[in-house]
């Protein structure tokens, strides 16, 4: 929702450069362009429309509008306009054609708030930007490619991946917050709170459009549909699997909907491996992507197996201590995997991982074997405990 009166630019067509320069020393490679994801999603939405039409013909009566269903098949020009819509053309977020259409057809766009949500979302970005500049200056990535780096003691080499991942997170926090603010400024992705929209997918509950400007203005709106990063969740969630859900959230929805669910396996770990493999391919052909992404299923399997075997046997105090240790290991696992993501080449990645003795791989394998020995189950079948969702109070969560 958030209508066409916000400007004819919704149909502008232009190309997105692969990256943009932040300064002479920092080039922000922000990952793959969302265009292919948009077209895959659109094809699925058109297929859903055809299936619904066939069911109507077979049943002999017409149902009311279904949640998220397209009214008709978009034309070629409409498809191109959606694929190259200026909202999201640079860094995302991913959005469905239904979201795009709701924006164009919003009956009362003037009633959709944008300034306050934009300011509320944008306020941390300058701080994250300063932290990125500071951390990347003090701990430059290029140092890891130099021979002198490997003459440093082991604790120094282990520590270095922490600020590298910190700078990596700060960079993406700024970029994705800016991308969300661009959507919010245009009123793109705004739905009533009652629709319970989720990142990428849009509304999960039917919410009739308001019949007058007054009723539209009385509604409370949110921009969860285009929310692409939960900075708090990324930093403070306990599990590796939860960290994935808070990062690049709209694309995570796309991966779950179109890759994970159609994976040629039933196992949670194997489905995750399939999803990570295709995600790495989508990012590019650099070996570092594959080494990093394909380490995730091992970590998922290890944490799920060991948690199901041990955490439930602990006292409340023991579970709290467990969560702190789990969070620490989760962050170190992401630090470790980030090195492959930023070093990119096979030689540089393996050289760094070898210099820290492949510690995360060894710890993950050891945790998996221990969990199996103690009778731990599949991570896909265990019940997640809400107490382990994060370590900080909910009131600290970013708006």
From TrEMBL:
Q: What stretch or stretches form a coiled coil here? A: none
Its record classes its membrane topology as: Multi-pass membrane protein
State a single Gene Ontology molecular function: acyltransferase activity
Asked whether the UniProt record includes RNA-binding among its keywords, one would answer no
Which pathway is recorded for this entry?
A: Lipid metabolism; phospholipid metabolism; Phospholipid metabolism
Q: Which GO terms describe its cellular component?
A: endoplasmic reticulum membrane
Q: Which terms are listed as keywords in the entry?
A: Acyltransferase, Endoplasmic reticulum, Membrane, Transferase, Transmembrane, Transmembrane helix
Which cell locations does it reside in?
Endoplasmic reticulum membrane
- Official protein name in the record: Leukocyte receptor cluster member 4
Organism lineage string: Eukaryota, Metazoa, Chordata, Craniata, Vertebrata
């Amino acid at each position: 929702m958030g209508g066409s009166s916000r400007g004819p630019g919704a149909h502008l067509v232009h190309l997105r450069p692969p990256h943009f320069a932040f300064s002479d020393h920092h080039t922000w490679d922000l990952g793959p362009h969302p265009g292919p994801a948009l077209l895959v999603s659109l094809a699925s939405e058109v297929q859903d429309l055809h299936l619904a039409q066939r069911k109507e013909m077979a049943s002999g009566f017409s149902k009311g509008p279904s949640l998220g269903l397209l009214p008709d098949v978009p034309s070629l020009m409409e498809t191109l306009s959606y694929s190259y819509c200026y909202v999201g053309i640079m860094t995302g977020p991913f959005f469905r054609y239904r979201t795009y259409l709701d924006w164009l057809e919003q009956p009362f766009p003037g009633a959709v708030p944008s300034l306050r949500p934009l300011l509320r979302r944008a306020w941390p970005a300058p701080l994250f930007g300063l932290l990125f500049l500071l951390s990347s200056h003090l701990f430059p990535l290029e140092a890891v490619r130099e021979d002198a780096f490997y003459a440093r003691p082991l604790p120094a080499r282990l520590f270095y991946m922490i600020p590298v991942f910190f700078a990596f997170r700060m960079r993406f926090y700024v970029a994705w917050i800016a991308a969300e603010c661009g959507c919010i400024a245009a009123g793109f992705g705004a739905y009533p709170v009652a629709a319970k929209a989720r990142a990428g997918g849009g509304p999960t509950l039917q919410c009739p459009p308001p019949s007058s400007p007054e009723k539209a203005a009385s509604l409370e709106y949110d921009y969860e549909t285009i929310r692409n990063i939960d900075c708090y969740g990324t930093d403070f969630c306990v599990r590796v699997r939860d960290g994935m859900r808070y990062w690049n959230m709209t694309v995570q929805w796309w991966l779950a909907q179109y890759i994970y669910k159609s994976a040629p396996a039933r196992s949670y770990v194997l489905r995750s491996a399939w999803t990570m493999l295709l995600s790495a391919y989508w990012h590019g052909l650099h070996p570092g992507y594959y080494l990093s992404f394909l380490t995730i299923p091992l970590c998922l399997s290890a944490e799920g197996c060991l948690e199901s075997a041990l955490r439930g046997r602990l006292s409340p105090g023991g579970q709290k201590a467990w969560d702190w240790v789990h969070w620490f290991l989760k962050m170190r696992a992401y630090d470790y995997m980030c090195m492959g993501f930023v070093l990119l080449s096979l030689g540089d990645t393996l050289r760094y991982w070898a210099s820290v003795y492949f510690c995360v791989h060894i710890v993950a394998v050891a945790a998996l074997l221990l969990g199996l020995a103690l009778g731990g189950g599949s991570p896909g079948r265990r019940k997640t405990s809400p107490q382990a969702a994060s370590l900080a109070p909910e009131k600290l969560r970013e708006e």
